[in-house]
């Protein structure tokens, strides 16, 4: 009887934990779901809450010529060419009058503009060369910063892990101080050094240097891990005639795959989603992805559908990376708990 009660308790606990995890997963997914939904909601309906993408209306022939460029970021020069329109067109003229004057069927105009109106956000994002360029440069900066920054952090951690004297701990403490010094606090002196003295204003290399510099979190991660590696490994390399560089390349680097996953999981979103430093060091034509999405806000009008589509685009690589390397991230998360 007691065994049956214990088994029922275990089943109930497993059921309760599973239910909590399912509810937590749903709550976590909801913001991403609504972000995707909003990317299909036209700007003129952006003030209304939508559980699902609304049924989109056909192109309104009573809309004016100039409003298409203002509200939907449509290239009117390209539209004129593809619709065989010629001459000057008054921005305040409706498309009904344009169709009559140029002897064009209203159905042809409606069929041409329907995709632009219904899927304007994604079309704007995927066809805007500025967005594409900013996406490519964000990928280059992020992955190069992760590789070089991780390599430097491993090298720093290997040195700090070998410190044994009391005063050596102060060097580690100096690195840890960066945890309480936010980038906003030092952005002006950093800009003066990199922008004015080194001439790196409006340069991607300035962002690269900022992202690969020694930070508190990567130094803490690698120092903690490397300090737990037996010194006998290094001694065996020295006995076999190897040097420190060979030990670092052939022994230390392969052993730091798991802490590197921890470092990448923490650092990747920080670099990818950086807004402040991109706005400060780069001009609009060279913005990385998040600052470029922020620049989609207009002075008089804002294409919210394009902004939401851009936000969807910005989180897709992060989700893909986490899903692709989730096993390695789980191992890195459990390594500290299972140690010893």
Walk me through what this model shows.
- By secondary structure, the protein is mostly helical.
- It folds into three domains: 2-38; 65-118, no CATH class; 128-338, MetI-like (MetI-like fold).
- It has 18 helices and no strands.
- Helix 11 packs antiparallel against helix 14, helix 12 packs across helix 13 and helix 14 (257-272) crosses helix 18.
- The longest helix is centred in the N-terminal third of the chain and has 37 residues, at 2-38.
- It is extended and about 90 Å long.
CATH fold call of the largest domain: MetI-like fold
The number of strands is 0
Report how far apart the termini are: 38 Å
* Secondary-structure class: mainly alpha
Whole-number radius of gyration? 28 Å
Draw up the topology in text.
Elements: H1 2-38, H2 65-72, H3 76-82, H4 95-101, H5 106-118, H6 120-127, H7 129-161, H8 169-176, H9 183-197, H10 204-212, H11 216-226, H12 231-239, H13 244-255, H14 257-272, H15 276-281, H16 289-294, H17 304-324, H18 326-338
Helix pairs in contact: 1-17, 5-6, 6-17, 7-10, 7-11, 7-14, 11-14, 12-13, 14-18
